[in-house]
Amino acid sequence: MRIEKQKISLAQIYSFVIIIGFAFFICLNLTGTVSAAISINSPNASLELNASLCINDSYKIMDKLSGEGFAVKRINDTIKSAEQVFAAQITLKSKARNYDFSPIIVSCDEIKSLSEDAFKARDEISSLMKFYEDSITEKMNSSSIDAVILEIQGEMKDERYEKVAPLVDKAYSEIINVQSAYTALNVFYQSTATGIKAFFGAKNRLFQIPNWAVILIFAALFLVTYFIYRIKISIWILNRKIEKLKIRKGTIKNLVMKTQKDYFQTGRISEGDYNIKVKKFAELIRDIDRQIPLLQEELAKLQKVKFKK
Q: Which of 82, 176, 240, 289 has the most crowded CB, counting CB atoms within 10 A?
């Protein structure tokens, strides 16, 4: 009896040890799983906090830009989009599904970059306008510069601050080009004026009088000659015009004959082309027939005046 009692006691001890060991094994596994879960979710937890903070910072940035007179529609839309993404990730987290707050951080970085670009663009525009006012005068043609400045103002209004810097560089180049062209033109005018002044003031070697006097004499002779022979000159000009119109009319008639030959004899052109060409030639001939009588009438008047004189 004592031996049986001792055996039962040992069996109980062995069972208790096995149960304790099994329980310890389960606890180790559960601890590892929980630790793994915590290690997996800890980055997301950190991102969630950073995302929430950066949205608040983005609102501060927007308020600052608005207070400085900048347009903030683009930034406001970016913040609203980031808030929607944040809310969607919170919903996924509550349902124990995969979630990611990193896109919100990207949106916040974009807003910071926009803010930096906005202030940088404003400073660049301010320097540009000072350079413009100091360099350009009313006598200069500044239309090309004004066009670039209008484009810059449009980009600022539409919050495309990243596109302002290249346009500012372009505006500087235009200002320099306008200045150079104006300077070159002034130099040309000055040298030309100096040369003309020297020419008029110099004594003519042939007539031994100043050049301006020679020019005046020849101009007077030309006017007298024209006044005397103006009717003959006008008659000659009218005769030349009438002769040219008659030659042109003959050329057009030859073209009509060639067109008729190409259609009726050789068949080189179609009926449609033939009708178009003949119609056009007929209009040209009618126009010439209207001009010639008018010129002849004017010629007759001049000849009558000449005969009376």
A: 82
Distance of CA 92 to the CA centre of its chain: 45
Domain total of the chain: 2
Other residues' Cβ atoms within 10 Å of the Cβ of residue 100 = 14
pTM of the model: 0.49
For residue 123, the enclosing domain spans 2-176
**116: number of CA atoms within 13 Å, CB side?**
6
- For residues 170 and 220, membership in a common domain is answered with no
Q: Do both 19 and 109 map to the same domain?
A: yes
What is d(CA 220, CA 227) in angstroms, rounded to the nearest whole number?
A: 11
Residues 20 and 164 placed together within one structural domain of the fold: yes
Q: What is the pLDDT along the chain (309 residues), one digit of tens a residue?
A: 333 444 445 555 555 556 665 555 454 444 443 343 343 444 566 888 898 899 999 999 999 999 999 999 999 999 999 999 999 999 998 998 889 999 999 999 999 999 999 999 999 999 999 999 988 888 888 899 999 999 999 999 999 998 999 999 999 999 989 988 888 887 777 777 777 777 777 777 777 788 778 788 889 888 888 777 788 888 999 999 999 999 999 999 999 999 999 899 988 888 888 998 889 999 999 999 999 999 999 988 888 876 665
